[in-house]
Amino acid sequence: MAKIIDGKKISAEIKEELKQEVAKFKEQGKEAALAVIQVGNDPASSVYVRNKKRACEYIGIGSLSYELPEETSEEELLKLIADLNAKQEVSGILVQLPLPSHMDEDKVIRAIDPAKDVDGFHPQNVGALVIGQKGFVSCTPAGIIELLKRSGVEIAGKHCVVIGRSNIVGKPMALLMLRENATVTVTHSKTQNLKEICKQADILIVAIGKKEFITADYIKEGAAVIDVGIHRDENNKLSGDVKFDEAEPLASAITPVPGGVGPMTIAMLMNNCVETMRRDA
């Protein structure tokens, strides 16, 4: 039977550690604040924003919220980002994605000061990850590394297969696994023999965006399986990219959906916010 990797428990541990760290920084007179910008009122985005505010409150850092109407112009958004870049009391800036279609996401991400880009999406931070330098790392992949390490899954020397090549999960995930000395294969929609490649994985990280696509046929016995997918059915029941009931008997460790990768994203966002305090230490 697979060990169930409990993302809720691990994220709570991380937030507790961060809370203690922030308290020590405050004793030294250091503060941090995260500015979150949401354009429009996408329900999923609103939930994320609420959770981010709550997490800031819990660990003891400031939280500024900018809820802009859907019709806000790109120019107005860029002006707000420039103002926040200039504010010393703002240590992290996050623009909730997706943005309305009349805005250029890439342009908006590039407008954020890389030293305040706690989402780790700015090309400068992505470039730093590629060449092994310090910079903010995208929160979901960073959270997966923590899940593996804190669950006792050995990474060095193992074969890791990543399914998906998005800029937010797949690519940074592959780079982080390389940094941890895994041998990495990245697969995607044009990959041939996907099943055969996945069956070679000691660690299988699935970010394909297709509900329960990965079945028992894709999993090597004893592999650690990390499911990044999240899908909601008509009854509001959540499931992932992996067919959990088929994968769990084969895997040595597996993340459930919900309660696996999801909670880690916000925990690592908080870690990036605290990193802004560590840099000034």
Describe this structure in words.
This protein folds into two domains: 28-115, Leucine Dehydrogenase, chain A, domain 1 (Rossmann fold, 3-Layer(aba) Sandwich), CATH 3.40.50.10860; 139-262, Rossmann fold (3-Layer(aba) Sandwich), CATH 3.40.50.720. Helix 6 packs across helix 10 (262-279). Helices cover 41% and strands 16% of the residues. The chain is of the alpha/beta class and 281 residues long. It starts with a strand and ends with a helix. The protein is built from ten helices and eleven strands. It has a six-stranded parallel β-sheet. Strands 3-2-4 form a three-stranded parallel β-sheet, sandwiched between helices.
Which fold name fills CATH's third level, the topology of the largest domain?
Answer: Rossmann fold
Using only C-alpha atoms, the radius of gyration works out to 19 Å
Q: Which structural class fits the helix and strand makeup?
A: alpha/beta
Strand content: 15-25%
Distance between the termini: 45 Å
Strand order of the largest sheet: 1-11-8-7-5-6
CATH homologous superfamily designation of the largest domain: NAD(P)-binding Rossmann-like Domain
